[in-house]
Amino acid sequence: MSGKKYKNKRQKSKSALKVYVVIGGLLVLLVTLAVVGSGLDKKKLGDLPGYAVNSGSNIEKAYSFASTDVGLEVLAISTCYCGCEVSVGHDNLLDCFISSVGDDFVKYDDHATNCGMCISEALDAETWSDDGQSAIQIKAQLDSRYGGI
Prior knowledge:
Number of strands: 2
Shape: globular
Order of helices and strands: HHHHHEEHH
Number of helices: 7
Largest sheet: 2 strands, antiparallel
Radius of gyration: 22 Å
Strand content: under 5%
Structural class: mainly alpha
Helix content: 55-70%
């Protein structure tokens, strides 16, 4: 009798595990779709700072891209090759444009206004994003183009 109860409990545990695996898989799928879908939205964070707007069209364009959902996603995983990780302490290309983002604020960084490398990388990233490339593909292209400089 006790062997039969043990077998029933084991079967119930296996069934419950299958349900959890299916639910977990669906959650992963939904999160993945949300992340991929967000890459297509170019909604901006807010007004650009005066030093970006009044600095020239390429600088303004690069800051504008950095302030979109796509820009945030792409630049946050991309390496900046200007040397700012040592000189300024930046962790990624996004740090050259935006130092922090909160629920109701954006704190911009003026580093990129004086750095042609940062601007070039961001403008290339925007072009490749407009061509439909993923953030990972764009990062690989940035690494290939600027990594040897």
